[in-house]
Amino acid sequence: MRSDIMNRFEVGPQILYGRGSIGCLIEKDFRNVMLVTEKFIVDSEISKKVTNILSLQGSDYNVFSEVKPDPTVDLVIKSLDMMVTERPDCIIALGGGSSIDTAKAMMYFFMKMDQNKEMKKPYFVAIPTTSGTGSEVTSYSVITDTKEGKKIAFDDPIMMPDLAIVDSKFTITVPKKVTADTGLDILTHSIEAFVSKKSNDYTDTLAEGAIKIVFSYLLKAFKDGKDEVAREKLHNASTMAGIAFNNSSLGINHSLAHALGARFHIPHGRANAMLMPHIIKYNSEEKQARSRYAYITKSIGIEVPDERNSVNALVKAVEILNEKLEIPHSLKDMGIEREEFYSAIDEMVDKAMNDICTENNPRIPSRTDFIKIYEDLYNGKK
Fold it and tell me: Domain of life here (predicted)?
């Protein structure tokens, strides 16, 4: 007898996209807005693309511009203080994943403070200025606990934005190195979503589409940041990948990158990119994952007759892309001292094993597996 199974697919916020889509804010009726962003975005007047519209519509606004890469618990508490004082009816997060994750965590703790459920959740707008995290369409946030020396990934529907404005005009001035790091984060999100234990027809379509876009357009955007078509394609791919992994979850590529990034302050997308060839090889020992990776290889236009060689071809394709995007081959190449790295492995492995992303990896990892992956990454062993 067949038992019925109901699964769930969350679409998330309304998405307004395209060059100039920021103009939609003029149609909103906000009384009191809190803008969460970075000092650089204010100093470079990028934030004026938002605040000028708020002024035109007569909205009061306050700017919290202390966000830094890898937002910390202390930073979230500081932003929360402003939110409690100002009681905005709208939160706008403007920036990369750090700004959006800070606003999400702030929103989460603000609503959790309301034990009696009397407060109305502020309308939440996410405006990404980089193409990579997909945070504008997910209920995930990653915050750094500096006391424990670890990144904490957590998930709650409260943190899902109500509106995502995916306007690629914000990405035109993004530096080459950031374009590479964030673009490869899209690829990691997409591939992990595609091979996840929770992947499904809906997530597969979005993940596959995003993978194709990255291989077709990332190098173009890296070489010419003013290529508007490439920028728009990547910005859309980031959102597509975000919807995919928000529903299918991620895997150990992210678990290991979270621990590594927290310990050695490596940008998240770069850590993911460096780990990716190692993770594909490791996961491909699991039969279904191997078949899924082989499908990706064919999807990006590489025809190989058998699955194992097809996986090897995908690994090679990622390695070539990394090289063209000037991603370091090994941690040793980055100048990390051997003794310092090896003394940190056990602690990083502990954190990676307990990371929320490890649960839905297609292959169940052991501590020994994680140690070997880290060692191979340090030495650049293929």
Answer: Bacteria
What superfamily does domain 176-379 belong to in CATH? Dehydroquinate synthase-like - alpha domain (1.20.1090.10)
- pTM for this one? 0.93
- The dotted CATH code for 14-171 is 3.40.50.1970
Q: What is the pLDDT of residues 166-192, one digit of tens each?
A: 999 999 999 999 999 999 999 999 999
Residues 6+ apart with CB under 8 A from 106: 36, 76, 79, 80, 83, 91
DSSP three-state, residue 16? strand
User: What is the rounded distance in angstroms from the CA atom of residue 164 to the CA atom of residue 170?
Assistant: 13
Provide the 3-class DSSP secondary structure of residue 88. coil
Work out the pLDDT band at 355, boundaries 50, 70, 90. very high
d(CA 26, CA 54): 7
Q: Residue 17: which residues within 8 A CB-CB, separation 6 or more?
A: 165, 166, 167, 235, 236, 239
The sign of the torsion formed by the CA atoms of 152, 157, 163, 167 equals positive
What's the rounded Cα separation, in Å, for the pair 283 and 292?
10
CB of 198 within 8 A of CB of 47? no
